[in-house]
């Protein structure tokens, strides 16, 4: 199917186990249901924007509306690509790649979440590796950055396995209280040294201009 007016719907990022794609309405509904079922233990909050605090129906609606907003607000110098992650044909989580003034800076930021039922199986590492391949090999990024709370060992472990290096600490506000974030940075040369996942891209040429690169 040709996506003449929004070619990003034709983009596919594939690893041996996963497919990442911009969700159509049917897949977006599945993604919202995964969020509604839970993405972290109720006594933790890994996000500085606590969108997952609410009851299941609110979590699902928040994800549904947010992904639609990334499409509506897309600009080639300020974009957020929110990809549904599919494992064995089922949506299991979401992987974001974001940038501002990418043509100038060459810097992307990543963020993600994975449904509770799908955690602990290496999927989080594989989907981030897919996003990094899209950024570095596909779009020609120079740097990828991320951040995680210092008490979030799973996220920090994913970054460490993929070659990120610590890039200082910062303080953020969460529910009216301060929390400490570990900033992380991955330069292109170090990504080349640590890349192990086999990743293929499909449909990028048709939507390359949307990224402002």
From TrEMBL:
The keyword Transferase applies. It holds the Pfam family Acetyltransf_3. GO terms for molecular function: transferase activity. It is an enzyme of class 2 (transferase). PROSITE patterns: GNAT. Keywords: Transferase. Residues 42-187 form the N-acetyltransferase domain. Its EC number is 2.-.-.-. PANTHER family: RIBOSOMAL-PROTEIN-SERINE ACETYLTRANSFERASE. This is GNAT family protein. It comes from Streptomyces laculatispora.
């Amino acid at each position: 199917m040709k996506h003449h007016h929004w070619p990003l719907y034709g983009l596919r990022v594939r690893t041996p186990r996963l497919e990442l794609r911009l969700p159509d309405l049917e897949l977006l509904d599945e993604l919202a249901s995964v969020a509604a079922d839970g993405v972290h233990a109720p006594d933790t909050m890994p996000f500085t924007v606590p969108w997952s605090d609410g009851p299941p129906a609110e979590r699902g609606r928040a994800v549904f509306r947010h992904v639609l907003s990334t499409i509506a607000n897309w600009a080639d110098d300020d974009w957020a690509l929110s990809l549904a992650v599919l494992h064995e044909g089922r949506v299991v989580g979401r992987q974001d790649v974001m940038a501002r003034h990418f043509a100038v800076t060459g810097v992307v930021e990543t963020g993600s979440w994975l449904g509770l039922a799908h955690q602990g199986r290496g999927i989080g590492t594989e989907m981030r590796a897919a996003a990094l391949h899209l950024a570095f090999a596909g779009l020609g990024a120079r740097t990828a950055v991320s951040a995680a709370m210092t008490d979030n060992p799973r996220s920090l472990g994913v970054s460490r396995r993929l070659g990120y290096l610590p890039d200082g600490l910062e303080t953020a506000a969460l529910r009216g209280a301060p929390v400490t974030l570990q900033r992380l940075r991955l330069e292109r040369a170090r990504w080349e040294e640590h890349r192990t996942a086999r990743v293929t891209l499909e449909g990028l040429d048709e939507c390359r201009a949307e990224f402002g690169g």
